[in-house]
Amino acid sequence: MQTLYGTLLQPSSPSECTVAGNTTVRLGEDGKIAEVAPGRPAADDVIGDEGCWILPGFIDAHLHLPQWDRRGIDGLGLSDWHQRIVYPAEARFRDSGFAEALAEEFVSGVISHGTTTVAAFGSPFSAATDRVFAVFARRGLRAVYGRMLNDMNCPEELSTPADQALDEARELAARWHGAENGRLSYAFCPRTPVCCSEKLMRGAAALAGMLDCYIQSHAGESAAEVSAVRERFPDNLDDIDVYAEMGLLTSRTLLGHGVVLSRDERKQVAETQTTLVHCPTANIFLECGLMDYVAHRGAGIRIVLGSSIAGGPDPFMPRVAVTCIETAKGLKIHAIPRGAQQVPTPAEAWWLLTRGAAEGLGMAGRVGLIEPGLEADCLVIRPEKWIAELPPHEQVSALLYTIRPRQIEHVFIAGHRVGP
Ligand SMILES: [Zn+2]
Prior knowledge:
Elements: E1 2-13, E2 16-27, E3 33-38, E4 46-47, E5 53-56, E6 58-64, H1 78-91, H2 96-112, E7 115-121, H3 126-139, E8 142-146, E9 148-149, H4 162-176, H5 179-182, E10 184-190, H6 198-211, E11 214-219, H7 223-232, H8 239-246, E12 253-257, H9 263-271, E13 275-278, H10 280-285, H11 293-298, E14 302-305, H12 317-333, H13 346-353, H14 355-360, E15 378-381, H15 392-402, E16 408-413, E17 416-419
Parallel strand pairs: 1-4, 1-5, 6-7, 7-8, 8-10, 9-10, 10-11, 11-12, 12-13, 13-14
Antiparallel strand pairs: 1-2, 2-3, 5-15, 15-16, 16-17
Helix pairs in contact: 2-3, 3-4, 4-6, 12-13, 13-15
Zinc ion (ZN) binds next to strand 6.
């Protein structure tokens, strides 16, 4: 039994984030939150004090583990990025010992940035994917993960015939989906419609449905990417239409980016309850475009956030959330009539980092809030002192903009202290 003490910050809805000073949170032996109560605990072994804040752990819903050690390499557009960074980074995973070592660094890295749940892509190598899952199991990270699937329009050494890739993916799913008391989940990961045969996409959709696994992919990342999809599927209207036809739009699908989505595509994504993963830092880093968060949300799309490592340079999710706001402000500045567009508030940003992300990943019954009965994925941080002197709504804003990874003192996942 672990006892935490401090100021509790957590979102209660997309528009409201509550701040409760002088709060005790008890973690049970079962890894769940046992109690949240006002007042200071009497116990000696308390973690935290008046200067500490307790928050739900951050959820990063789109990143590429093989690119962990390729962050911040600027100057490449999306196409060169694939050729010069993505493919060589993944090719190294033919050596599963290398994959295991990088996975260790990845886990330490994301945890030290306060991320307790990831939805990440692996390499197209099954042995490496298995070793990475074993690292997640041992280190206690909550993860959705899967082997990358592609069988065309990618380097030969990364391409696997559809039948073989699907067989191997099914074996991985059988071993890891739901493992570690549900902390680990498997995702079928067709890279993009351009890199996958119809057989591979349809097979991935069928297996994911049968095994109740996730699907992760990319759509509408840039205008060039959209044109490439159209060239390959001239009979379909657009990317989203291709995905719909292949059976890949589901309530268990996490679709990365969606920078370029027409009104009809927005409608289709919303209607299928597909979760869109907004990756604003990556969209700017690779100069793909500014996603219109407000319009997407207005169309009823369920949106979560991703660092998109290493297309995005920074794994710190509050920075991604701030960039979500800044992107919306950029669009607002240039909107006609000027100022017509709204921007997400800091309270909404906290929601996107925690509870909203848990809902988008179908994990709302497990994580995303600090509430009795939910699994204890939480952070104890020590922000700058002056924040406590502000009125609550200003605290919510100031903390979002000033929080830094070095202020994170303890990270818990399922009640276990895992870092930093
Ligand atoms: Zn990606």
